Amino acid sequence: MTFPLLLLVAATNLTGVITFEREGLGFYFMTDDAGAHWRVERPSDSKATVGDRVVATGEKEPSSVKNRLATSSLEVLGKVAPPPPKAVTIEELFENIMPFGNSDWYGGTFVTEGLLRDINRRQTTTQLLVGEGERNIQVEIPLPLESALPERLVQGATVRVTGALAYTSIENYEEALFGRIENIELIPMTVDAVEVVKRAPKPPFWTGERVAGVLGIAGGVVAILFIWVATLRRMVRRRTNELAESIRLRETARIEADAARRERLRLAADLHDGFQQYLAGAMFRLKAARNYLPKDAERSRDQLEKVQEALQHTQAGLRSTLWAMNEESEGPESLMALFSFAARRMAHWEGKVDIKSEGAERSVARKSAGTLLLIMQEAVGNALKHGKAEHVRVRLVFGEGRLRMSVIDDGEGFDTAAASGEGHYGMSSMERRCTELGGEMTVWSKRGLGSRLDFSIPCGES
Q1: 334-462: which CATH architecture?
Q2: Which of 103, 155, 259, 335 is 20 to 30 A distant from 20 in Cα terms?
Q3: Which CATH superfamily is domain 2-79 in?
Q4: 214-257, pLDDT tens digit by residue?
Q5: Rounded to the nearest 5°, which phi and psi values hold at 109?
Q6: Is 86-198 assigned to CATH 3.30.750.24?
Q7: pLDDT digits (tens, 9 = 90+) for 122-158
């Protein structure tokens, strides 16, 4: 246990050339004179750029699969030509890195090609999913949500990516868990580092048999997905119950809560890395199938649109669930503090969402708190996105044995009868979650006068 600590405090001097630098990131990648690649922290006063020959001084972090330096100073010696990127295939990346990493590859500059399978717009970056066969890597480009996506970046195109190689791995020395790789990522320095080498193919004419085959596969994926989710939920519930029973006999309540939180975070990571990629691939194939249909194939197109709608609803629900699981696991125990904690992490809520409570706060079961968090997120999200509200008030009223939550907005309002019909998943989802907690939901809304949603549930002990 003391050996890693000795490594952590050992001072290290590295001389080499900067091979990667991107504005907004707090680190460089460099190649030292021995040819090893390093991830070095970027000092706040550093102005080094790619091609600078530097001396980096700091503490080497204890890892067998990554060369990382907690930099204390960075001195620029001059300018040299950085080493050229190494051309590899995605298959070669997986063969050399999975499952336990490779310090000779981590931090190096590589160029590879693959099929652009998914595009995920985020607040400050855009994440691309690039694949070859059954292998996929992540490519995160510095393109914020408000910027237009280049026309050349279209799903189905073949792209060439140049960037620094990184991967996520488990490094837990207390529990002797380290080295297992979670995902592989190439980090380009600019948007232009992602080139389109082959446009998305034009759709051929599809026969009825092929359309039926795609529908069958899509239906099978959806069925397997729901079965997988249900199975995992049962497994997690059983493991959590067994763990809680054994811990209750010999450990404190704090240890029990920590164990449950670790399990939820593990499940969230598994769902994100597995289901999101399957859903993205299935929706890409459905979209391609719709484009391949002849103009007169209206019935087949309608069926494909319904399947795609179901997949999109599943993906939206999965993202909301993952969000709530992470907020619930990382947030404070108090329900009011948990709501405020989660709201602060939603940047687009700032200045628009006001959360307050009335009455003496009562204890709410942790599982119920997570469900209430999902309901609140759905209600506020609908008010901002669909109702175009400028202000949303969330009020928690703690009574004797009962909790009342109201979400009030000044948006455009809506037709409550239409909102409860087929295809409007938000209202039915909130009502279902509230009913599962033994509660009731009421809705009031009028065009031009905003909306009000009220939820009443019994309070339970955590």
Answers
A1: 2-Layer Sandwich (3.30)
A2: 155
A3: Bacterial OB-fold (2.40.50.200)
A4: 888 988 888 898 898 888 888 888 888 888 887 887 665 455 44
A5: -100, 125
A6: no
A7: 999 999 999 999 999 999 999 999 999 998 899 999 9
